[in-house]
Amino acid sequence: MTVQWGRCTNFDKCKDARQRQPIPIPVGSAFVCPQCGGALVGEDAEVASEAPAPQAKRTETPAPKVKKAEAPPSQIRRPSAALAVALAALIVAVAVPVVLFATGFVSLPNWAKLHGGAAAAATTSQNTILRLAGSNTIGDALAPSLAEAFFKAQGATNIRVLPGANPPEKIVEGVLPGDGFASSIDIAAHGSATAFTALAGNRCDIGMSSRKIKPDEAAKLASMGDMTSAGNEHIVGLDGIAVIVNASNPLNDLSKEQIKRIFTGEAADWSQVGGSHGAIKVYARDDKSGTFDSFKSMVLAGAPLVSSATRFEDSNALSDAVSSDPNGIGFIGLPFVHNAKAVAVSEKGASPLKPSRLTVATEDYSLSRRLYFYTPATARNKFMRMFVEFALSKQGQDEVAANGFVSQNVELEKTAVAQEAPDAYKQLTQNAERLSLDFRFQPGKAEQDNKALADLDRVVSLIADRGSAENGILLFGFADSTGTPQVNQALSLSRARVIADQLIQRGLKPAIVRGFGSELPVASNDTDDGRERNRRVEIWMKRSLSAATTPAETGQTQN
């Protein structure tokens, strides 16, 4: 094999450059450094690395006419056959991935993963700056989009998304400032359950989950910290599990009880739930899916999924199947509805609601859920914390919205008040707009959950950006129905006052703080999930304060 010699001049980044190490490159291959990918400067000599067969007449491969080099003897003497073979193997090992990398066919991290071994591990650790594993709902498009935006925010160039070894895997690459090689963020989206096994096995830095971590999973990760605390559990966005049917299906709404009957097989014909005659065909996500876990908890309530259901790992494939089947029904994350039809969902004591930006943002929609990043308390590398903070920032939340999920950037929404609302509530919300969030609390306590803590700062930012602190901020607290009316009334007011105190600490004084007990539930009080969503504080803002505002409306009102 004929080779040409070169030297790397990337002295800041490359060890071979600093050591002025001559580098052999096969003639015809890209003349770049296999260590850093930088262009090489030509050396002064070239040598033939083929050894003749035994007893053969000795011949030399003619070299081009070049200026004689200050080459070490090892570069101008014929190597032994064994050394030649070893040298040729080394050249192939380093040159082939560099050529493929330079031509865009494969990245160095991908080559390392494909070919394994100690050298591969070294390449992966050098170039892979972050590993995400878990939910397909998050990992299909949102995580790659966040990774691209993160690279851009860091000033990276040559950003691209590459397929991984399997369809649910993606690799996002970019060249960070000052680097001569691509760095990658690797995403493996095989289902929420795999987030926690990957964290435990040190196979990822960030676990993606479309459901809350289970107690047994948190226990196995206890050495990494309290995975339910604000330091380990990060809510990256909101989603509504949409119950989808074919666009030709005349049904527009279903109760949670009817949906349960369908997905457990108790109702096998559409006529049993108010539709036209026809056998119901059930489509569902697979067992590793956080979407299925959430649906199982919120709808099936421990009952088994009908055995005839067709299962999918990929959300898009499930949506396409329902869109193609006039008798089909499935459940899916909000961004994956596509050509199917999402029906409104109702439950006992609450009106039917379709999944929308407002109903999901406030978590009033009965199949709303949160999307999570889980991280160790001690960061495994500097990029882990940087990436999470970026995802939670306004810029990161814009990416959440751009991918069809519901961001946590707070907005004012004009919304109709339910007919069954208390008269005082109707009066107070006249000429007011609702903020696109609710503050929620732990069972039986006036203690906020993790999302409420972050949302307080988002509310302050919205009001500061709009310059509208002089407008009236209205806080309305609610409770579930587990206590007596008197206890629930006191608890709902106490929760509203907790939020009021937090806003006052941040320089904002609410105009009205009111408790409404267990009135106006947004979900059934017969389930844990429903009771959790009923424990809330709504925040509204008056468009303008009238000079005729009554004293009862300008202070912290009593019950």
Give a topology summary.
Elements: E1 3-8, H1 15-18, E2 23-26, E3 40-42, H2 73-76, H3 81-103, H4 108-115, H5 117-127, E4 128-134, H6 136-139, H7 142-153, E5 157-163, E6 169-175, E7 183-188, H8 193-200, E8 206-209, H9 215-220, E9 233-245, E10 253-255, H10 256-264, E11 281-285, H11 290-300, E12 310-312, H12 315-323, E13 328-333, E14 341-342, E15 344-347, E16 350-353, H13 357-361, E17 368-374, H14 382-392, H15 394-402, E18 412-413, H16 423-428, E19 432-440, H17 450-466, E20 473-478, H18 485-505, E21 512-515, H19 528-534, E22 536-542
Parallel strand pairs: 4-7, 4-8, 10-15, 11-12, 11-13, 20-21
Antiparallel strand pairs: 1-2, 1-3, 5-6, 6-7, 8-17, 9-13, 9-14, 9-17, 15-16, 18-19, 19-22, 20-22
Helix pairs in contact: 4-5, 7-15, 14-15
